[in-house]
Every structure is written in structure tokens, then in C-alpha cells.
Amino acid sequence: MCGIVAYIGGKPARELLLEGLKRLEYRGYDSAGIAVINGGLQLSKTAGRVRVLEDQLGQDDRFDGTIGLAHTRWATHGEPSDRNAHPHEDDPELGHGIAIVHNGIIENHAALKTYLMDNGHVFASDTDTEVLAHLIGHFYEGDLEASVRQALREVTGAYAIAVVCAQEPDVLVVARKGSPLMIGVGSDEYIVASDASAIVAHTNQAIELDDDTIARLTTDSFRTSTLENVTITPQMRELEVDLEQIELGSYPHYMLKEIHEQPEAIRRCLKGRVSARDGSVVLGGLNEFARELGRTRRVVFLGQGTALHAGMIASYLVEGLAKIPSRADFASEFRYRNAIIEDGTVVVAISQSGETADTHAALREASRKGAMTLGLVNVVGSTITRESDAGVYLRVGPEIGVASTKAFLGQVTASVLLATWLGRRRFLSPMEASSMLETLNTVPTLISRVLDQSDQIAEVVGKYVQRDNWLFLGRGVNYPVAMEGALKLKEISYIHAEGMPAAEMKHGPIALIDKGMPVVVVATRSSQYEKVLSNIEEVRSRGGHVIAVATEGDDSIRNICEDVFFVPDVPEVLQPLLTVVPLQILAYHAAVMRGHDVDKPRNLAKSVTVE
Ligand code: G6P
After folding, report:
1. pLDDT by residue (tens digit) across 324-347?
2. What is each CA distance from 404 to 181, 196, 606, in whole angstroms?
3. Helix (H) or strand (E) holding 567
4. Which residue's CA lies nearest to atom 2 of ligand 1?
5. Are 484 and 328 in contact (CB under 8 A)?
6. Which residues contact 503 (CB under 8 A, 6 or more apart)?
7. How far is the CA of 490 from the centre of ligand 1 (A)?
8. How confident is the model at residue 514, as a pLDDT?
9. Ligand 1 centroid vs 32 CA: distance in angstroms?
10. Where are the beta strands (DSSP E) in 63-171?
11. Given the CA of residue 359, which atom of ligand 1 is nearest to it?
12. pLDDT above 70 as % of the chain
């Protein structure tokens, strides 16, 4: 959510910043802006995408400096508009030429604004960020770092910021609390960004800033310190992302690329972790806590959006394979619900980015209440991975498409591994585990078989794409898959869709079914197969058109459905890894046919770092 990039070094900042913004655009795309110090503060911003900013800048030589910052926004305070776009300046009357970009929310902005207005400040936007800019300007006495420090001490909320000042043209100040920020370290240059994707083209050495930390950067020096001005020595780490992974290649959209990367992503997630022969799972990140985890009495999965759907599946898996009571909860609800954490409770945060504010806050709360915390996270070194006791990386590679696909499969795969790992410490026999793991190893190849049906799925979508209401039904582990199918469709095609347990449909939602309404039903061979068939009949007798996801070889299902997508036969616990794939492809084609920007759906952002 909101992308920040800042640069100080010897190269032209404008090109570097614009390139960084394009890589970060999946974090937000309501507006974009840039500020460069070049004989004073040069600032340009606009509502809309980065390409609009690029056109606006043209070759204007006022922006030829070698220090600057830029921003792509996902609006929180103030509508998306030119005036609310970042960077924001301090009070121009003061003549400091301070500019700031910010990701996060300044919660006490109203009180601070009143204070500043009482002191003569006049504001040009509706944003909380401009309040922080003015506060920094208010404290400025010739030392940018000191005034940023002073301002941040007055602030409550979350922030990742970068600040420049025309009066100190060789200094870039950055700081963070609760929102991600990393500093790429090149030779005599620094590239600061919300995530690695804007850095890797320039360097693979980076410093992950800790919360409540400020860094002062010049071309040949940096110093990091706490808000109390105690110097700290940060850890440098090598970025594992390479440029090829974040390029679109020959695909028209990142989402399609990532859907097709799923076989390889799952292979990477499984690599070195599964020993099918003796039915064991090796999760290096859990070794240190093996004894404690062996005493687990309850597992709570937390996440938001797609990650929560993976958590719902995970809770079925932990109960099914490890026989441990388990549930999944919206992180945002768990956090404020005064949830009871009993002895032996393990709380697992699931997150692609590892930065989702709701999930992070809930994890902290669980830890405060004494739970052991784990993270199933994709982004290495992200906040949730650093703050959880232990975890399992998804290893699916960078996910750029705003609608999550391969990360979901990684989350489910990691959940299968975790549930098996826990199960083998309890009642799951080596034989049972062995046969399931053997099939798990073949899942990447089986996913490829589902991907091959993309054209057929597109044809089916073509028949229903004008319909504005869809239902997605499933039972057991395939109920969260139905939720995920509906979410995918909503997110990128803006079609209203609801996912629910198939049995729940008759308790109300059935009233929605009218002639020709598309109802997607996950109807694979499972313990509840017969019941699902009855639910299909209920839909049909009200005129609904059923699109089933069924098991290969189940030809008889064609007799009761309008359309069928087939997936290979696997044990029930592994089915979500296959049944979700046609639903991802379905949503993709629907969005393309409706002419939407698949990778940048309206109102969404890839990583939501505000609560
Ligand atoms: C946002 C994204 C969703 C994602 C959710 C959780 O809402 O639009 O696609 O599932 O955040 O993100 P996380 O990074 O925690 O998995």
C-alpha cells in the first residue's frame, strides 16, 4: 500500500525514481508524484498512474538533480487528486523547501493540524502526510534529521517516510514505524524503497530498517539511530529477488504469469521439505521449537483476504491431519475481540507480503497474550517474519499481481506441510503421511494439467460474463476455495460474487437464484460428494446454471451441470491446490473480457499496511 522510493547518489534521480515507481505501482495507483532537489525543491505530482506523471514531467531539466523522492498512492486520507498526491511540502512561507513521501497513517493528525493552524500554518491538502511535513518544517532549525526526529516523537500511527530539504541538498532522511522500508546500498548511492522490487535492478545489498528508526543518508555515509538518537548498527542482507522474477516477460498480465508459475512455485515450496518415503516433513524454521510445538493444543490461523482463505483451509488440515483443534479468523477481528489464548495455543499469521497491518497487529496481540507465534509468509525478512517466533517461508517468488494466486497455493502447500509436521508428532502414521506426501509431490505436474484447460475455461466464461451476480459453493476444504473463487471474481472483474458453504445456500442465499444465474460448485469426489450433488439439484431446480469443478473421470456430472472443469483426482486434503486453479483462470478471463486492468484493479492495493 503506497509505494515509496527515494534516491541519493551520483546518477540522475528522475529516471531512477520513475523506474522505481513503476515497479512499486502495484502497491497503489491513485496518484503519483516526485520531488528532486536541483537548485531548490522541484516538485511534480498528479492524480492517476505513474505514466501520467512521466508525461507531465517530460524532459523538464529542473528535475535533473541526483537526490529525490517519489510516491505512488493508495488513498487513505483525502480523495485521489492532484492536491492530495504526494510528495507534500512544509509551509512554503517558511522557505525551507522540505518535501516528504509517506506510507501509513498519522492517527493524531487532526490534533497536530489544529496546533499547526493555531501557529499560522496553512494547508494545501486533506492528507495526514501534509501535517507531518508542516510539523517537520515547524521544528526545522538547519538540521533536517533533528527536525524529523522531533516531529516523529509527536506522532502516533504508522509511517514509512522519506524526506528531503532544499537547504540541505546532500541529505536524505528516512524513517519507519509499522510500514515497510528498506535501504538499498550501492557504491556511493542509496535507493530507499517500500520493497525490494524497486531496488534489485541497482543493488542486492540492503538494510531493513527497524521500527522507530531513522536513517540519515548522504552519498558516502549513513547513520541509523533510534527516535531517542541512540546510534544503532543495522544488519545488511542480500536480496534474494532477481530482476527476471519481477519482469512481465511475454505475458500480458502479472496475474496470468503468476497463475502459470504455480507448478514451479509449488515445486520450490516443497523442495527439500518432503520425504515421502518415510512420511516425514522437514521444516527448518520450526526445528528450534519442535518440543514446544509438540505440545500444541490449539492452532489459530490469522490473515486477511486470500491469506485468510488459506488459513480456513489450514484449519481443516490441522484438525484432519494433526487432530488438533483449530480455527481461522480475520486478523482484524481477532485483534479487537479479546480472544482467549489458552496454554498451548499456537497462532499462525498467514501473509504473502508479511506486512499486512491487520495481520501484523493481531500477531503482536497474540504474542502479548502468551501465544507462540508462527508466520507462513512469502516475503523474506518482512515484518511478520521478524516478529514471529518461527515460521515457514512460502518460497513462491515475488507476487506482483494485486489479485493473489501463486501465494495462495504456496500458503495452502505450507499449511499441508505444517499440518503433516504437527500430525507426525501426534497420531498421523508414517504410512498415511507417506501416501499423501507422495501425491503432494506430483501436485505441480497436476496443476499444469489444469492450466492446459485455460481456453476451455475462457469459452465458458464468455457465456456468463455479462451476468452481474454469481454464487460459488463448496464443502469441507473446498468451501474456502469457493470463497476464494468469489473473491478473485470480485477483485478484478467487479462482478458481485458470494462464496459460501454449499449447504448454507438454502438458508437464504437461494432466494437470489434466478434463471440463468451462474453458480460455480466445487463438486470433486470427496466425503461430501453426494451432498454437493443434492445442492447442485437445488440450484438447477431454481433455474441456476451450474459450472462444476469435478474430478477427472466423473463424466456423469455432465448430466446435471451446464459446464464442467475437470481436475485430477487427489486425496481430499490436497484438493484445494487443484480446485482453485480453474477459478483463478475464470476470474482472469472475466476481467479481461470486461476490459479491466487485471493487475491494478480499482480501489485495491497489493499490500494493505493500514488497519
Ligand atoms: C490485500 C490484497 C489481497 C491479499 C490481502 C492480504 O487486501 O489485495 O490480495 O490477500 O491484502 O495480503 P497478505 O500480503 O497479508 O497476504
Report:
1. 999 999 999 999 998 999 999 999
2. 22, 18, 8
3. strand 563-567
4. 606
5. no
6. 475, 531, 535
7. 14
8. 87
9. 22
10. 67-73, 88-89, 98-106, 157-165
11. 15
12. 100
- Please tell me the predicted confidence (pLDDT) of residue 603: 80
Residue nearest to atom 3 of ligand 1 (CA): 305
Q: Bridge-partner residues for 498, per DSSP?
A: 471
Flag whether pLDDT at 102 surpasses 90.
yes
Cα–Cα distance between 224 and 209 in angstroms, integer?
Answer: 9
- Looking only at the bridges linking them, the beta strands covering 172-177 and 205-208 are unpaired
- Spell out which residues line ligand 1, taking CB within 6 angstroms: 304-307, 351-353, 356, 359, 402-404, 604, 606-608
Residue 77 CA to ligand 1 centre (angstroms): 20
70: burial class by Cβ within 10 Å (0-12, 13-18, 19+)? buried
Mean pLDDT calculated for residue range 311-315: 98
Centre of ligand 1 from the C-alpha of residue 353, in Å: 7
- Backbone φ, ψ for residue 499 (5° rounding): -110, 145
Query: Which residue's alpha carbon is nearest to atom 7 within ligand 1?
Result: 305
Protein residue with its CA nearest to atom 4 in ligand 1: 305
Reported confidence tier of residue 11, pLDDT bands at 50, 70, 90 = very high
H or E element that contains 419: helix 406-424
Give every CB contact of residue 541 below 8 A, 6+ residues apart in sequence.
none
Task: Give the C-alpha distances (Å, rounded to integers) separating 196 from 4, 47, 199, 384, 500.
Answer: 11, 25, 5, 16, 37
Contact 130, 113 (CB under 8 A): no
Check: CB of residue 473 under 8 Å from CB of residue 482. yes
Rg (CA), the chain: 25
Of 194, 195, 306, 359, best ligand 1 pocket probe by most atoms within 8 Å of the beta carbon = 306
Mean pLDDT of 461-471: 96
Residue with cell 530482476: 243
For the record, the C-alpha cell of 588 comes out as 482472469
| 146 φ/ψ angles, rounded to the nearest 5 degrees | -65, -40
Site to probe by mutation for ligand 1, drawn from 255, 308, 313, 352 as the one with most ligand atoms within 8 Å of Cβ, is: 352
What is the per-residue pLDDT across 498-554, written as a single tens digit (0 to 9) for each? 999 999 988 988 888 888 899 999 999 999 999 999 999 999 988 999 999 999 999
Name the H helices within 201-304. Answer: 254-260, 262-270, 290-294
Determine the length of the chain: 611
- Catalytic residue ranges: 2, 606
C-alpha cell at 451: 492450466
C-alpha cell at position 384 = 511478520
How far apart, in whole angstroms, are the C-alpha atoms of residue 58 and residue 33?
Answer: 13
pLDDT digits (tens, 9 = 90+) for 475-491: 999 999 999 999 999 99
**Is residue 607 predicted with pLDDT exceeding 80?**
no
Q: Which three cell numbers stand for residue 464?
A: 456468463
In the predicted model, is pLDDT for residue 174 greater than 80? yes
5 with 21: CB under 8 angstroms? yes
Longest dimension (CA), the chain: 79
Mutate to test the pocket of ligand 1, among 2, 379, 607, 609 (most ligand atoms within 8 A of CB): 607
The pLDDT value given to residue 477: 97
Hey, what domains does the chain have and what are their CATH numbers?
3-245 (3.60.20.10), 251-450 (3.40.50.10490), 453-598 (3.40.50.10490)
- Answer yes or no: are the C-beta atoms of 314 and 301 closer than 8 Å: yes
